[in-house]
Amino acid sequence: MRDPIADLREIARLLDRHGGQSRRAKAFRSAADALAGLGADERARVDAARAWATLLGVGATSAKVIGQSTAGRTPDYLADLQAADGPLVEGPNPLLAHIRGDLHTHTEWSDGSSPLEEMALEAVRLGREWLAVTDHSPRLRIANGLSTERRRAQREHIAALNDALGEGFTVLAGAEVDILDDGSLDGEPAALDPLDVVVASVHSKLSMDADAMTVRMVTAIANPRTNVLGHCTGRLVAGERGLRAQSRFDAEVVFEACRQFGVAVEINSRPERQDPPDDLLALAADMGCLFAIDTDAHAPGQLGFSEYGAARAAAVGLDADRIVTCWPVDRVLAWATGGN
User: Fold this and answer.
1) What is the mean pLDDT of residues 212-221?
2) Rounded distance, CA 131 to CA 194, Å?
3) 87-122 burial by CB neighbour count: b if 16+ within 10 A, else e?
4) What would the pLDDT profile of 296-311 be if each residue is shown by its tens digit?
5) Distance between CA 328 and CA 35 in Å, rounded?
6) Residue 135 · residue 173 · CB < 8 Å
7) Which residues lie closer than 8 Å to 127 by C-beta, 6 or more apart?
8) How confident is the model at residue 1, as a pLDDT?
9) What is the rounded distance in angstroms from the CA atom of residue 306 to the CA atom of residue 296?
């Protein structure tokens, strides 16, 4: 007997995995939520009447998937996606097997599309050992950034989830924090100090003067609360949001600050970012920086984007010991609090 809710979620996962189809993925995820929200009696009535398309959030395509799954067959839509699925990167990808975790992910607490639990379970399915949840800071209102109170509530949620998951996998409480114009971090100490990890990223005034941007970034890197410099150029090279030129800054100064303060340079694995660009990635590698291969995932299927980042890291000759996301969780936590 098939589970149509599981089939809908698997379709969404595969659409997200292969990128560029987030709206379609969201539609299938909404259909799964609509079906899951029914009581037993209402579900039986809808199934008997084959009236799935009458549910809010279920369209004609989703209704067909539900019907085929309820009848005990693999839905055609899912079968086609499964047949087309495969590695995201062709050829050998030697660093991929070394990845243990991810330091940059989002959930429905901010602008992600899925619950924290689903992100954690997908990370487990991928063989990861830990996952940092880094929902946005309060200034990024368009992304539903977390206030101090919501951040505290999320930490409690993460603690409860870790209790439920038991040993073998750990969810880290983190945040992706805006780097403000003067280089300070967005968020009160009461929100940031208790966190396991902080990713600091520029999200505004990306085209500011190069000298000013350099000072801005170095100031944030020198902040003891910063662990990872997120998507350092802010560029977009493809995708639904269009294109965006990279920010200008003195890369040698910025990466030297990362090296001196032990801040990891993020290899942002989203296909529309590929940040840093190849030349800057090679420069940071040559300068001896630490790195974090991060997915910046906003849905479970995007956690597989680490394939892209692992391939780029290997291309510039990085080994696993210089990549924080290849470390066991105890070493990550020691590094994040100033040790290594």
Assistant:
1) 98
2) 17
3) ebeeeebebbebbbbbbbbbbbbbebbbbbebbbbb
4) 999 999 999 999 999 9
5) 38
6) no
7) none
8) 76
9) 9
Q: What is the dihedral of CA 120, 325, 242, 80, to 10 degrees?
A: -50
> What b/e string do you get for 156-186 counting C-beta neighbours within 10 Å, with b at 16 or more?
ebbeebbeeeeeebbbbbbbbbbbbeebebb
pLDDT cut 70: percent of the chain above it: 99
Spatial separation of the C-alpha atoms in residues 30 and 230, rounded to whole Å: 30
Between CA 220 and CA 187 the distance in angstroms is 13
**Strand, coil or helix: 183:** coil
Q: Alpha-carbon distance 222 to 257, whole Å?
A: 7
- H-run or E-run covering 118: helix 116-125
Q: How confident is the model at residue 339 (pLDDT cuts 50, 70, 90)?
A: low
> Rounded to an integer, what distance in angstroms lies between the CA atom of residue 293 and that of residue 296?
9
Residue range 312-327: average pLDDT?
98
Q: Is the peptide bond before 276 cis (omega within 30 degrees of 0)?
A: yes
Distance CA 137, CA 286 (A): 32
Phi, psi (rounded to 5 degrees) for 168: 105, -20
Using a pLDDT cut of 90, give the percent of the chain over it.
96
Confidence of residue 23 (pLDDT cuts 50, 70, 90): confident
- Report the distance separating Cα 30 and Cα 57, nearest Å: 6
- Mean pLDDT (the chain, rounded): 96
Taking the CB of residue 238, how many other CB atoms lie within 10 A of it? 14
Distant-in-sequence contacts of 284-289, Cβ < 8 A, 24+ apart = 284/251, 284/255, 284/258, 285/316, 285/317, 285/318, 287/252, 287/255, 287/256, 287/259, 288/259, 289/255, 289/258, 289/259, 289/264, 289/265, 289/322
Angle at 17 between CA 14 and CA 22, to 5 degrees: 85
> From residue 258, how far is each of 3, 252, 281, 296 by CA, in Å?
48, 10, 13, 20
Q: How far apart are CA 263 and CA 290, in angstroms?
A: 7
Q: How far is CA 197 from CA 259, 278, 317, in A?
A: 17, 26, 26
Q: How confident is the model at residue 254 (pLDDT cuts 50, 70, 90)?
A: very high
What is the per-residue pLDDT for 239?
A: 83
